[in-house]
Write a structure and sequence with these properties.
Number of domains: 1
Shape: globular
Structural class: mainly beta
Helix content: under 10%
CATH architecture: 3 Solenoid
Distance between the termini: 38 Å
Strand order of the largest sheet: 1-4-7-10-13-16
Radius of gyration: 13 Å
CATH superfamily: Hexapeptide repeat proteins
Largest sheet: 6 strands, parallel
Length: 110
């Protein structure tokens, strides 16, 4: 039997009603809001803020220094470069690759 243990640094702040998938990796200084779901094998790098009600799929990579708003849906396989801001309510529903220092607002990528 294989048991996956998630290491969460002391500098990470996690809200209420949070579900983390298998093999999730979270870097230092990450803040995660309430009612958050993250799929298997997802990586969240250092200094990331994620708002309430956000759902992140499996095999997602979120770079350093990002702000992810509230009620965001990020589907499987998405990669978000460092320094990116995703505003409230955005849905990224394909295996998109988003560059560095991008601001995404009022969009629904399908």
């Amino acid at each position: 039997m294989v048991v996956w243990i998630k290491f969460i640094p002391d500098s990470v702040s996690i809200g209420d009603n949070v579900q983390l998938g298998i093999g999730v990796s979270i870097g230092e200084d990450v803040t995660i809001g309430d009612d958050f779901v993250i799929g298997d094998w997802t990586v969240i790098h250092e200094n990331v803020q994620i708002g309430d009600g956000t759902h992140i799929g499996s095999n997602v990579i979120i770079g350093e220094d990002n702000m992810i708003g509230e009620d965001i849906v990020i589907s499987d396989g998405v990669e978000i470069g460092e320094g990116t801001m995703v505003q409230d309510g955005v849905q990224i529903s394909v295996a998109a690759i988003i560059g560095e220092n991008v601001k995404i607002e009022r969009c629904n990528y399908r």
